[in-house]
Design goal:
The protein is of the alpha+beta class. The chain is built from 1 helix and 4 strands.
């Protein structure tokens, strides 16, 4: 059973499941692809950062030039 961790509108959703005692994080992107991160190597905060970074740069926002 997957549990919803975070929803970023229609862009991405993060789920987790725990099939054998370790969490696995599943990221479902708006284009239908699914990316999986194993809880041994990635924490929930790591997965959130990766998703938010990818979404930030995908929108084309560039705040580095001020």
């Amino acid at each position: 059973m997957r549990v919803l961790v975070e929803s970023y509108g229609t862009d991405a959703r993060i789920f987790y499941d725990r099939p054998f005692g370790y969490k696995r994080y599943h990221v479902e992107w708006s284009d239908g692809t699914v990316q999986m991160f194993h809880g041994v190597w990635y924490s929930e905060q790591d997965v959130r950062k990766k998703v938010e970074t990818k979404l930030f740069f995908a929108k084309g926002d560039d705040y580095s030039v001020v």
